[in-house]
Amino acid sequence: MNVRFASATARRIVTQLRHDRRTVAMMILVPSLLLILLRYVFNSEQAFSAAAPALLAVFPFAIMFIVTSITTLRERTTATLERLMTLPIGKLDLLVGYMIAFGLVAIVQVLVAAAISLTWLGLEITGSVWMLLVIAVLDALLGTALGLLASAFARTEFQAVQFMPAIVMPQVLLCGLFAPRDSMTPALEWLSNVMPLSYAVDALDSVTRSAEIDGTLVRNLLIVAGCVVLALVLGSATLRRRTP
């Protein structure tokens, strides 16, 4: 990987985002607005504190997935990607550049959502706030990496959107948000054990309930980080210059 090419790609994407303020505003504010809505649906700080940590993983994950997959596909269908790949730049350099650019947006997105949740909405956690933020950002990066991977298999923006129920929704349903994973049928529990969002939610729940950084928490973080790297590598291997 060439750091100079990756950073140049990141600067180009950030510059484009600066000229699309509505999209940036939606990316940053939508998770917070959804958490605010949830807080008043429960109408209880205790109930909100029980559900919010998992949703701090789910909302940024889902939003970054759909935005990244559509943006990358648009660059390919408009031949921008084809022109870039005539230069001495590797596929991994491009994807890492996208990851850096969208990762910066994800950091702001998570900081805003966490700040609103911990202050105005009354979210209570036992563990470190900084660890909570690190895990939430890692979850957003996971959505970004999977979005980059999914964009390689879509030919139209409609197909890119369809990957959301195919890739994101099963993980949301099986991550333990609606029911404990160990209470599911053996087949569904097995599926949940191979989905990275499950480990992200487990890590956030652990930080919320305990200040101790144990081996299970470290394992969950390593699994999520490993899935981010794996998705980037697979995305670079399957990336095409343009959509036929």
List the helices and strands and how they pair.
Elements: H1 3-18, H2 21-42, H3 45-77, H4 80-84, H5 91-118, H6 129-151, H7 157-174, H8 186-193, H9 196-209, H10 215-238
Transmembrane segments: 21-42, 48-73, 94-123, 129-153, 217-239
Domain ABC transmembrane type-2: 14-242
Membrane topology: Multi-pass membrane protein
Which features would summarize this protein structure in a list?
single chain; 244 residues; mainly alpha; globular; ABC-2_transporter_component; membrane; transmembrane helix; ABC2_TM_bact-type
Determine Rg (CA atoms, Å): 18 Å
Strand count, sense and barrel status of the largest sheet are: none
Distance between the termini: 27 Å
Given as residue ranges, the uncertain stretches (5+ residues, pLDDT < 50) are: none
Shape: globular
Fraction of residues in helix: over 70%
Number of strands: 0
Q: Give the rounded overall mean pLDDT.
A: 84
> How many domains, as an integer?
1
Tell me the structural class.
mainly alpha
Order of helices and strands: HHHHHHHHHH
Keywords: Antibiotic resistance, Cell membrane, Membrane, Transmembrane, Transmembrane helix, Transport
Subcellular location: Cell membrane
InterPro entries: ABC-2_transporter_component, ABC2_TM, ABC2_TM_bact-type, ABC_2_transport
GO cellular component, one term: ATP-binding cassette (ABC) transporter complex
Describe the structure.
With 244 residues, this protein is mostly helical. Helix content is 78%, strand content 0%. Helix 9 packs antiparallel against helix 10. The chain has one domain.
